[in-house]
């Protein structure tokens, strides 16, 4: 018996890792890194982070929120139909294949899968797969409560990721201003893989693993089903710095998730409120992206060329520039007492005293400060700075 239980657990783990969402997510994350490196090298002839950074962080940043989500969803008893999970997975794969991560918010997947099931009921009610019938899914019953609440929880997780983990990996690139000059903008395109354990009524897992953990409530059996979900994010910042824009955006997404949970909770008494909650979630998430995009396009560039010195667009990790505490948007006015106005003058001034570098820097707030750093032979010859040129 114990050997059979172990085999069932191994089968379930294998099914999870063979899920197409998991496999496509790995390929998509590698692609994200490849295109980011290509864009950075086109602008600065050097990449900011290694090309596999996105792939390495695919699950590293999300396992703890995934654990919390699993405990909340399964602990509260929010059940979903297996067909909804299948549609969510299919929509996730479609989003990753297109690389259009503006559409990869979990509220879009949750709502489209929900209304997709309703469309199947209306236009293909006789459709059946292994005994499953569209009419078996009660979209005006428990699903009207559980799907909006789950979507709200996933929105809160998305807001957390956007607030905490997008600004540090925003990728700078050079683009032309209206005056034909070259300024820096910052693009954050991220993908998180969030493995969540769902409660599914029926013997969904028993067909693959007869000894997979189940429990019975009344006359209904429930299975714990691990499903890899993806959360994607894509946004360009140019009128604001990433470390100022993205945390605010993440906070707005998180509060939208709270609103969705509150409205969805009313579906316990008024099921149609669950439908309304999903529509509000989709429209609200779209409005957050649209408002931010319009504001950033209309505003000027925060990292534009200045006559006073050389503007920083990015800093290589573990470089002298990072040790100095420099940040994108600051302007280097002079190096070793020599005024600089372009990248070549910056490099020449550094070579005046290759062992000890003294900088006069204009901060984002306009205040001037003096900084100095000892340079070693293995350090980057331009302090590890990506500059607007």
From TrEMBL:
Keywords: Membrane, Transmembrane, Transmembrane helix. The keyword Transmembrane helix applies. The keyword Zinc does not apply. SMART domains: PDZ (SM00228). Residues 296-365 form the PDZ domain. InterPro entries: PDZ, PDZ_6, PDZ_sf. The chain crosses the membrane at residues 12-37, 58-76, 82-100, 107-124, 144-162, 191-209, 215-237, 249-269, 275-294. This is PDZ domain-containing protein.
């Amino acid at each position: 018996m114990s050997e059979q239980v172990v085999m069932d657990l191994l089968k379930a783990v294998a099914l999870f890792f063979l899920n197409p969402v998991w496999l496509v997510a790995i390929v998509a994350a590698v692609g994200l890194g490849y295109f980011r490196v290509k864009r950075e090298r086109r602008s600065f002839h050097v990449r900011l982070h290694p090309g596999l950074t996105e792939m390495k962080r695919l699950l590293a940043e999300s396992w703890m929120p995934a654990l919390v989500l699993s405990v909340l969803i399964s602990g509260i008893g929010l059940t979903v139909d297996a067909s909804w999970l299948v549609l969510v997975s299919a929509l996730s794969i479609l989003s990753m294949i297109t690389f259009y991560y503006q559409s990869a918010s979990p509220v879009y997947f949750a709502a489209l899968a929900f209304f997709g099931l309703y469309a199947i009921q209306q236009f293909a009610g006789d459709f059946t797969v292994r005994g499953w019938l569209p009419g078996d899914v009660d979209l005006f019953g428990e699903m009207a409560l559980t799907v909006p609440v789950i979507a709200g929880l996933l929105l809160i997780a998305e807001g957390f990721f956007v607030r905490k983990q997008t600004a540090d990996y925003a990728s700078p690139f050079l683009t032309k201003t209206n005056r034909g000059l070259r300024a820096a903008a910052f693009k954050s395109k991220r993908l998180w893989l969030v493995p969540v354990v769902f409660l599914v009524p029926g013997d969904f897992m028993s067909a693959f693993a007869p000894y997979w953990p189940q429990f019975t409530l009344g006359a209904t059996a429930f299975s714990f089903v691990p499903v890899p979900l993806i959360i994607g994010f894509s946004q360009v910042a140019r009128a604001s710095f990433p470390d100022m824009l993205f945390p605010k955006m993440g906070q707005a997404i998180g509060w939208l998730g709270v609103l969705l949970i509150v409205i969805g909770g009313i579906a316990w008494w008024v099921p149609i409120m669950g439908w309304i909650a999903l529509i509000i979630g989709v429209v609200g998430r779209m409005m957050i992206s649209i408002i931010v995009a319009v504001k950033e396009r209309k505003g000027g560039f925060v990292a534009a060329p200045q006559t006073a010195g050389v503007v920083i667009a990015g800093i290589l990790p573990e470089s002298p520039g990072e040790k100095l505490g420099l940040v994108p948007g600051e302007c280097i006015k002079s190096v070793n007492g020599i005024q600089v106005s372009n990248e070549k003058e910056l490099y020449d001034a550094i070579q005046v005293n290759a062992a000890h570098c003294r900088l006069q820097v204009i901060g984002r707030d306009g205040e001037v400060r003096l900084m100095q750093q000892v340079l070693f032979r293995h350090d980057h010859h331009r302090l590890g700075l990506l500059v607007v040129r």
